[in-house]
Design brief:
Elements (H helix, E strand, L loop, with lengths): L6 H19 L6 H24 L3 H25 L7 H22 L4 H21 L5 H29 L13
């Protein structure tokens, strides 16, 4: 019996929520839709996809989807705590939160070199985006816009891989290539 690939949900949630947050960072939309999709699709759906990846023996997908699902739920909690004045996280607090995620992303970027070119591209742009956001939180706020554009490209990379998995499966052949591993 054929089972579905949980990566399609994880990549869809990662791409959509990353895209929405960048629309917010560019000033195009408010935080409400980002928060709701961040918790449900970026958080919960990615975590479920990650737990399904674990069942398939994919440690990379397991770590990435559960990790970034947790990122979205954690970020949502920070926003809620700020909004309701339970605990006001400072700009610097959020900066250190992002630095920790940058370090995690750097590890996954190195691992992505052994997955495929599309994954490496997505994690390279994600790592660049996090570094730019780190710098934006620690004295260079003008870099937020550059980070937003980079992370829109990152979201596109995630959706590209999602599309490849779905379309290639339905076609029964490779229609959309994800490229080879950069490190064998």
């Amino acid at each position: 019996m054929k089972i579905g690939n949980p990566a399609v949900v994880g990549l869809a949630g990662f791409g959509l929520t990353t895209l929405l947050l960048q629309f917010h960072n560019l000033g195009w939309m408010g935080l409400g839709p980002v928060l709701s999709m961040g918790i449900i699709f970026g958080g919960l759906a990615q975590m479920i996809a990650g737990f399904q990846e674990q069942k398939m023996g994919n440690n990379f997908g397991y770590s990435a989807f559960v990790g970034y699902g947790s990122f979205w739920i954690g970020l949502g909690i920070i926003w809620f705590l700020n909004h309701f004045s339970v605990y006001k996280a400072s700009h610097t607090d959020v900066g250190f939160f992002l630095v920790a995620w940058t370090l995690y992303t750097a590890i996954l970027f190195v691992a992505s070199l052994r997955v495929n070119t599309a994954m490496t591209f997505t994690f390279a742009t994600l790592l660049i985006g996090f570094v730019l956001l780190d710098l934006a939180h620690f004295g260079f706020p003008q870099l937020t816009k550059f980070a937003a554009w980079d992370l829109i490209i990152c979201a596109g990379g995630a959706w590209y891989m999602m599309a490849a998995i779905i379309i290639n499966d339905l076609a029964g052949k490779t229609v959309i290539s994800v490229g080879k591993r950069l490190i064998q």
